[in-house]
Amino acid sequence: MSDQERPTPEQMLARIRSESTEAASASSEGKLRLFFGYAAGVGKTYAMLQAAQAMKRDGREVVIGYVEPHARPETQALTEGLEELPRLEVSYRGSVLHELDLDATLARKPEFVLVDELAHTNAPGCRHAKRWQDVEELLAAGINVLSTLNVQHVESLNDVIAEISGVQVRETVPDSILERADEVTLIDVSPDDLLERLRQGKIYVPKQAAFALEKFFRKNNLVALREMALRHAADRVHDDVEVARLGSASNRPWPTNERLLVCVGPSPTSAKVVRAAKRLADRIHAPWIALHIESASAAQWTDTDRLQLHRNLKLAESLGGEIVQASGDDVSQELLAYASSRNVTKIVVGKTGEQTNRWWRRPNSLVDRLLRDSGNMDVVVVRGVDEPHPDSASWYSRSSNLPPLRWLEATIYTVAATLITLLMNRAGFSEANLVMVYLLAVVATASRCGSLPSFAASVASVLIFDLLFTQPYYRVTVYDSQYLVTFGVMLIVGLLASTLTSRVRYQTDAARRNERRAEALYRLSRRLAKTAKTADLLRETEQIISEVFDAHAVIYLPNDERKVRPILGHVASFAASAKEFATAQWVLDHNEPAGAGTNTLPSSEAIYIPLSTPDNVAGVMAIQPAKSNTQLSIDARQLLETYATQIAFAIERNNLSERSQRAELESEAEKLRSSLLSAVSHDLRTPLAAIAGAASSLDANVNKESIDPASHDLLETIVDESQRLARLVENLLHMTRLSSGKVQINRQWQPVEEVVGSALHRLDHVLTDREVKVQIEGDLPLVNGDDILLETILVNLIDNALKYSPNHSPIEIQSERVSGGIAIQVADRGCGILPGDEEKIFEKFNRGSGKNTDRRGTGLGLAICDAIVRAHKGTITANNRPGGGTIVRFTIPNETTPPQIAPEIDE
Amino acid sequence: MRLHRRRSRQRLTNNDMANSSAPLIAIIEDEAPIQKFLQASLHVEGFRVVQATTANEGVRLITQEHPAIVLLDLGLPDADGISVITSVRGWSSLPIIVLSARGEEKSKIEALDAGADDYLTKPFGVGELLARIRSALRRAARPSGDGEDHTFRFGHVHGDLAARQVFVEESEVKLTKLEFDLLALLVRNRDRVLTHQYLLREVWGPGSANEPHYVRVFMANLRKKLEKNPSRPEHLLTEQGIGYRLRTTT
Question: What is the pTM of this model?
Fold first, then answer.
């Protein structure tokens, strides 16, 4: 394969990503199947129900989550036989609205659920603002969803369709959900058929939308919509083909490395530019960035402007763009600098037609400057920006929003200057000095009142000077042409001063704002750096945030069951309601912001931001602006998110340190326990060792005939019993260590034979009259366990077999391979286990019930075996043996792959 | 584990001879009941016994009395028993048998690495104790170096290390090179416990410390070839958690 045909790493990555998302959606997330049409009435719902019926016939579990109840009889008939979930009834302004019951559906958890009208806007009070969000949650819960969608509801096509049809559709669905749909079925009929259906009354038309629909259902309109839908579907098919083609590398290389940047401003038409950029980015398969550069002119924005900017950025975000905000004086330079730092290949800007070439500004627009300086980047200029670009915005339109107080101030300066000059004139000062006083007034106005008042002040000053101090007095005309120069200079100085001062003022404002933010952030991080109890820390954090944002802040922490609880530092009334609680819980569970100003649970009073670290959600922060009905600006949101990260890490750090303290305490306790244990064991063992040793010593002398045979028996009993006691002490110690969970398992690879052999060797003295059959599968792999503990298991099992079976009956030990490990079993011909006791005998101090009670033993042996096997992550079972007796079988799984021993090459 | 070539016990026995012909045993043990039982049992068997209850006293006793063998408890009140082994090994290779409890495999290995010759797990019978003492004394008395006998015999197995031949009953058994090396090492240290790490290092070389299962697998092969019943070995014994011992007597 030649180099050109080989997929680039980027292509392979893209493919792997799309495959892994597929794999992910296959494993945990539900699948989304969309029935896509170009208008109401093409038969989407009908087709969806048909598909549902077919799936039901195939034995799949399909339920109706929500299907519009107005359906035609044919459609209605198709719902027969399908389980229908009850709808949620929401009363809103006196009427009852029906919605999809999200919680009921999640609780029902069917395999497939039908949810009609993906673009539907939910009634206020529902969890999500939009139905597509409900669907996302269903998919996340692993439920497969079938839904319907019309082309005009697709976000990126929204404006184009509005232009074609003249009907603005408010209910939109982000492209991302369309892109994640696993299957899109296009439902198509010819426009003529559709119109015929409409005439026959087969298409449901809500009364309030009748007019709009009338406008909508015109033939040329429908043809255009149909083309859009077909083209969109075709694009999707094309994408699928491309993904497949990239894998096979059968054709020319794919143009990768494209990156698109779109400039976003506060004008409503900027949204159009964003949508155009999204479509372009899709077509060239490039990632895209929505960049907003805040310049000096931002000082004059109104709240409406800010809100619109916020909306535009949100739109870009919902369309899948990356949002970046920067600030700087020269928009085009900032923009190009950022673009080249991110290797942007295409810049999309809106056409800013009407205000080019004003004489008092730099003679070129943003577009001109971009075109001039963009180097090897493409600049795409998008038509249809009716308003100027925010940066190039005319000052006039903005300044009209200045409060009248500033105008009053400007007037006072001018009047004061006039009064002073009148006095000076009377005192005989020269005219040049009088001009200086006016200039002072203009500069003062510029610095205090903004650019437009200062411009007005300079014009007014010129006029007043002309009227009062030049001949002819009290007339606008000037005799001496010298004064024209004076006027001109005054005007220019006024303008320059106003430009400069307004810029300085903006920068000061920005600096002050930044300083305030930095100070707040510094204060917060300093506070967070102090170690304290989490609750105290967060209480103070709540206070700092409340002050900085002039808002009520509440932090919620999850308890052990991951349920939120507020840390109430000060009284915030909103935190008390159950609804707000539910929002906080949702945010904790989903790690996404929700509440006021978001799309999820927007009816909450506060906005809820998750406090998340890369691998955990440490809590939730709720912010409610102190002034009601105000929303946090996008600035504030960003700052809040910075705070959220810091707080999250502080909580995590505190949690960690609390945990490590607890661990330290535990290890102290453990040290104490183990030193106590070794003291006790020493005190028990020493006398036992002395007894056993002394008795054996005496016994050894029997041969020397210093002791009679009866005494010999007694001595033997002493030796045996002290050995037994020693084993008991050992078992007790084992049990104590194992049940405290502090035993280190020292896993080693070893032949089963060796463990069996050493266990038998230890029991040699009691096995004298027993036949022991050992059956170990040939070529048995090594067993992966702790040698001493494995021996302990076998010693206990063999000892039990001895205890609970008649003398001279054989004991059988078998071992074989099982998947992922080794199984070993010990079988006897003893009394067996009473039915129902198979589990109980592994409990501590349980010696089996009934007939066995006369046997000696503490009932610790099997409990120890159980604990050891568990520590190896294996299983142990006891069963009655066919033909009488007991079989105890345990498995030891391999922790790693068994080692291979290369056969020795013998020379 | 350091292996010390046994010097001739000549000097020690000469010293002993001055007092009596019976070998002198030093017991370093702080528990009076155990001490009492050891002393009584050994005395009956004809050994002379000196005693110490602390590590310091023990070292002093060894330097002054030159015992033939030392029985050392690892849990002494003033210092770790291992420190006694290290300080004695600085100047003497007399046999040291460690007394310890079950579940203390780690300290047993440490003691063996420090130069102890053998260990006994409490509680032990007097028969076992005497067997260990005798075999330690025998080894200490055995001439080292060139005079060593390279033929060996245990149970129904016999062979010749120099000729690299091993027989079970009368038929020769074919061993691989590594199997033979392993067996030879055990034979040269018969009746002593050898740790896993020591065997690995000596047979497989210093780079093999991460493959402890080699010893176990080859040991299993040796058992299959030499033992009558490989799953109930009589000679190639496993000292669980520590290593192996070639028992020549049954």
Answer: 0.47
Specify the pLDDT at position A113.
92
DSSP-derived 3-state class of residue A807: coil
> Where do we find the tokens 């298409």?
A203
The more confidently predicted of residues A455 and A111 is: A111
Task: State the Cα–Cα distance between residues B240 and A758, nearest whole angstrom.
Answer: 7
Pick among B174, B231, B234 to test the A interface (most A CBs inside 10 A): B231
- The alpha carbon of residue A42 and the mean position of all alpha carbons in its chain are separated, in whole angstroms, by 37
* Gyration radius (Cα) of chain A, Å: 42
Q: Quick one: angle between helices A158-165 and A270-284, nearest 10?
A: 120
Report cis status (omega within 30 of 0) of the bond before A404: no
pLDDT reading at A385 higher than 70: no
* Angle, CA A858 vertex, CA A852 and CA A860 arms, to 5°: 110
Residue B3's pLDDT band (cuts 50, 70, 90): very low
Give the nearest partner residue to B230 out of A753, A758, A907, using CB atoms: A753
3-state percent helix, strand, coil for chain B, nearest multiple of 5: 45, 20, 35
Point out the residue among A690, A700, A787 whose CB comes nearest to the CB of B241.
A787
**A171 pLDDT above the threshold of 90:** no
- The CA distance from B114 to B84, in Å, is 10
- A296 vs A272: CA distance, rounded Å: 24
pLDDT beyond 80 at A529: no
- Chain B residues with a Cβ under 8 Å from any Cβ in chain A: 31, 33-34, 36-38, 40-41, 44, 75, 101-103, 105, 122-127, 129-130, 176-179, 211-214, 216-217, 219-220, 223, 230-233, 237-238, 240-241
Question: Which of A7-21, A429-443, A820-834 has the weakest average pLDDT?
Answer: A7-21
Helix (H, G, I), strand (E, B) or coil at B154: strand
Give the residue from B39, B15, B16 showing the smallest Cα distance to B27.
Answer: B39
Distances (CA, A) of B108 to A571, A788, B67: 66, 14, 22
CB distance A190 to A179 below 8 Å? no
Q: What is the pLDDT of residue B19?
A: 47
- Two tokens at A257? 């490395």
Alpha-helical segments (H) within A550-633: 578-590
The Cα–Cα gap between A798 and A826 comes to: 7
Strand A32-37, strand A183-186: pairing: parallel
Q: What is the pLDDT of residue B146?
A: 47
Q: How far apart are CA A624 and CA A351, in angstroms?
A: 39
**For residues A146 and A67, is the Cβ–Cβ distance under 8 A?**
no
Higher per-residue confidence, B129 vs A70 = B129
Closest by Cα among A635, A578, A636 to A604: A578
Q: What size, in residues, is chain A?
A: 907
Tell me, letter by letter, the H, E, C secondary structure of A523-551.
Answer: HHHHHHHCCCCHHHHHHHHHHHHHHHHCE
Type and span of the H or E element at A766: none
Residues of chain A with pLDDT > 70, as a percent, come to 82
Question: pLDDT tens digit string along A320-352?
Answer: 788 887 777 778 888 888 888 777 888 888 876
A139 within 8 A of A145, measured Cβ to Cβ:
yes
> What is the Cα–Cα distance from B190 to B183, expressed in whole angstroms?
10
Q: Which residue of B has its CA nearest to A792?
A: B240
Q: Is A749 on the interface with B (CB under 8 A)?
A: yes
Arithmetic mean of pLDDT, A140-167? 83
Q: Read off the pLDDT of residues A843-857 as tens digits, 9 standing for 90 and up.
A: 766 655 544 444 445
Q: Is A689 in contact with B34 (Cβ distance < 8 A)?
A: yes
Packing angle, helices B32-44 and B126-141, rounded to 10:
60
Q: Are A424 and A416 in contact (CB under 8 A)?
A: no
- Res A23: pLDDT: 47
CB B69 within 8 A of CB B133: yes
